Every structure is written in C-alpha cells, then in structure tokens.
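Please decode residue identities from the backbone states below.
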C-alpha cells in the first residue's frame, strides 16, 4: 500500500553508546505529474536538487531525530500549497513541538505547516531532514523552499525558484527564469542562462559565467561580484557592500549602493548606458580602447578623473563635472556622496 502511494519509509538506528538514541529515517515521495507547477518544502536541513532521466519528481528525505519515537512522527506528503500548487512537504510534529534543533544552524522563527516554530542550533528537540529532489530534464515550473539550511540546484531547465529563509544557495548550470532568494546567506551562481534574480537580505551575490537577457542582484548587506557576464541588462543594488562587474559584455549597467564602491570592467562593443550611484564609495568604469563616451558626474566629496587618451574634461566653472570622447557611444551617469569617479580605457 505504501508503494502504491509513492511513499517508502526505512528506519535505521545508528551508533551505540551515548548516541544510541539518535535515529535516522528515510522517506520517499513521488509527484507523477511534473508538467504542472509544483513545490518541494522542508523546515530544516540540507536540500539538493538534481536532474534525472525519469518523468516524475522524486524526493527523498533523510530524517535525523533524537529518538525513534520522534522520527516516527515525521512524514513526507503531497499537500496543497498556499498558491494551490501540489507541494511535496516534509511534515514535522509542529503541533506537539514548537522548537527544533538543527546542528550548525543559527536561531530563527518561521511559519511552517501552519504553525510558528523556532529552529535553533542549540535548543529544541533534535529533528531535521536532508532532502534530495530529482527533477525531469525537461522544462519544469518548480519552487524549492528550504526554510533553514543550505540549498543547491544543478542542471535544471524551466521556471525555478530557490528559496531559503536562512542558508546559502548554490546554482549551477540552470537555464530559464531563475530566482535565488535567501534571507541570510550567500548566493553563488555559475553557468546560469536566461533571466536570473539573486536576492539576499544579508550575504553576497557571486555570479560567474552568466548569459541571458537580464541579471539582477540585490543585497541588503553584502557585496555583489559578477565575472564573465553576457547580458542585455544588469542591475546591482546593495544597501551596504561593493558592486564589481568584471569581463562584462552588456548593453545597460545599473549599480546602486548605499555604502560601497562600484566598479565596471566592460568588454565588447554593445555597451550603451551606465548608471552608478553610491552614497559613500568610489565609481570606476573601464571601457575597451577606442570606445567613445560621455560622462556626467555628481560628486559631493571627491573628484572626477578621465584616464582616457584624447578625452576632454567638462567644466562647471573650475570644477570638473564630466568628460567625453567622440560621438558618445556610451552614456555614463555617476553620482557619489563621498568618493571619486574614474573612467579608464584599456
């Protein structure tokens, strides 16, 4: 009967001595219709999402609990999600316990399965699950939500949302419309194609080898670093932290930081517009040799410097407020409350 429902449970008691009471339990659930939008949700632990050759979504949870009785209270079920989509959810005994211990984690309170619960690295009953999700190689529409703990996804195609409340996100070789969102933790993305949004409340956005139409990185507190970017539009916004884009072949670049420097190293011949705004920090734009441009700069405390052969300064009185070269292929607007603005070529 359990096999017919797509759920398998195996119980293993591990180690002896002081840790004899600690138990692991393996649960498996399947979503047969992967053509519909779906979600996978876990409270605490590690989540890994990988492609496979099957036509179903298969999720396996390895539950670790303080004892067998606690492990037996965990299930892995398909439920109706908040937006109506089928959701494979690891179900914890949230009506019996309000605090769960996940070693290595911080301390946070979340709403899970309809209840407010706390996850802590030191307090509460020991209970968490490491989840592996196998997804068909065809295009899918999936949300992968791991409330506390790291989340990684690789080799998938479609409309994908990777979401953690507290934990790092790793995205590799994804294609489509991709969102990586964490409340606290770094986001590292490599080889993403299409549209990509990186959003972290506290942590860095690190993007390498992106190609697509739009790349957006937003951090509340943390740096943004991009390398090897090929995009029509790049937007980077950080409350506190630097913005760096290296080897960037883009049409439009927008950088905004409350406190931190902005640096763009452009390549190719597609660049048309640059906007850089920082409350405290310098702005540096490096252009390919021979690129014509017009820089307009507003510096509260700092100076404007154009290290480009043949460029002429634009003056307001005796103050340098910009510089230009040729027919203005690239328009650059830079605003800094405290810091210098520099344009170079190489």
């Amino acid at each position: 009967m359990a096999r017919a429902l797509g759920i398998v449970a195996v119980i293993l008691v591990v180690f002896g001595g002081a840790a004899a009471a600690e138990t692991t339990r393996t649960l498996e659930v399947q979503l047969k219709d992967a053509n519909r939008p779906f979600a996978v949700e876990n409270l605490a632990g590690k989540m890994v999402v990988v492609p496979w050759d099957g036509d179903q979504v298969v999720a396996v949870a390895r539950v670790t609990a303080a004892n067998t009785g606690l492990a037996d209270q965990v299930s892995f079920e398909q439920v109706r999600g908040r937006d109506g989509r089928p959701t494979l959810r690891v179900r914890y005994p949230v009506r019996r316990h309000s605090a769960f211990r996940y070693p290595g984690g911080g301390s946070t309170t979340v709403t899970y399965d309809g209840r407010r619960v706390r996850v802590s690295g030191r307090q509460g009953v020991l209970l968490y699950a490491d989840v592996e999700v196998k997804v068909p190689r065809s295009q899918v529409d999936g949300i992968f939500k791991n409330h506390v703990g790291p989340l990684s996804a690789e080799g998938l195609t479609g409309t994908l949302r990777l979401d953690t409340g507290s934990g790092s996100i790793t995205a590799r070789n994804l294609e489509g419309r991709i969102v990586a969102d964490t409340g606290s933790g770094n986001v590292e993305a490599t080889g993403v194609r299409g549209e990509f949004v990186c959003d972290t409340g506290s942590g860095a956005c690190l993007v390498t080898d992106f190609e697509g139409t739009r790349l957006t990185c937003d951090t509340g507190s943390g740096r943004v670093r991009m390398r090897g970017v090929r995009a029509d539009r790049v937007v980077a916004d950080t409350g506190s932290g630097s913005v760096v884009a290296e080897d960037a072949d883009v049409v439009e670049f927008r950088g905004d930081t409350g406190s931190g420097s902005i640096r763009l190293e452009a390549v190719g011949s597609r660049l048309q517009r640059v906007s850089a705004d920082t409350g405290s920090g310098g702005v540096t734009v490096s252009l390919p040799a021979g690129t014509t441009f017009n820089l307009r700069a507003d510096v509260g405390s700092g100076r404007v410097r154009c290290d480009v052969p043949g460029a002429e300064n634009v003056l307001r009185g005796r103050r340098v407020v910009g510089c230009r070269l040729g027919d203005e292929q690239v328009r650059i607007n830079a605003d800094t409350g405290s810091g210098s603005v520099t344009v170079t070529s190489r």
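Observation: The chain has two domains: 1-136, 186-346.
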